[in-house]
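Record 1 of the preview.
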Amino acid sequence: MKSMRIPLLSVMILVLVGLVFGSLFDLTISHNVATVGQPFGLAVSAVSPTIGFAGLCLIGGGFFALARKEWYPTWAKVCFYILAAGIYGVSIYYAGVEYFGPNGFAGAAPKWAGFLIAAVPLAGGEVGGYFLFRNTENKRIWILFLISLAILGVALVFGGMILKGIMHRPRYRFIVSHSDVNFHNWWQPFKVPAEYADAAFKEEFRSFPSGHTIEATILYVPVVFMGLSEKKLRKAQLPAFIGVTLFVILLAFCRILCGAHFLSDVSMGAFITLFLTYIANEVVINQKKLQLPEEAPQRE
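->
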């Protein structure tokens, strides 16, 4: 939507400033801010993926709402139900694994307990998505949902998996506890020493970009596109966008606070999702068929 251009560009500029500033002062900032294992930072880090993936579950709930509409054939409704269930299951896995994993409270409880914790609020996300989109006036909103899934898939796979695997940047918490591993800038691919190449240390060389920040920025996607569901939701877009931005800033700070990431890591993580969302928004703006019916141009 056109009304989302300025908010998206504003936050993109903010995270680019963070990337530049981090490129110059990453290590200095972490030296002065980070405390390895800081409890508040760990708590926010453990909970934030659940909040982020709740944004994905809003889309899952939207698919469930569409499956209840009479507009679509039976085969499409079945696909919508499958997508809603699949989104819920994927969200539980990726959010639940963080509670008692290496980026949360490792060892405090069995890892499976994290899945149970995540399941309840994520179910709330699916229910919230159903009520958010159940009165949609846009019969083609399922296309927007698929675009949203594509944005999130690219961000999570490219940023959260591929780029991390290419750069192998050591985390600050590992640097301060291992004198034989030095700080590396984000643009310098790091060769993991042989003695740390096994699975036990894998997570300690995945600092850039921040996967948690990518997950937190998932929330931007349904906020940007919800105004194309029905007009009355547009009043809530800017307040929701500001709320998401404050949450992303808090999460980014906490990832630095507990020694898991540098400023440039969290800045790039946020930029990846924001950039993809901005491009998708520009494409959607120019597709009349994806607008609300009353906004489509009338034939003479």
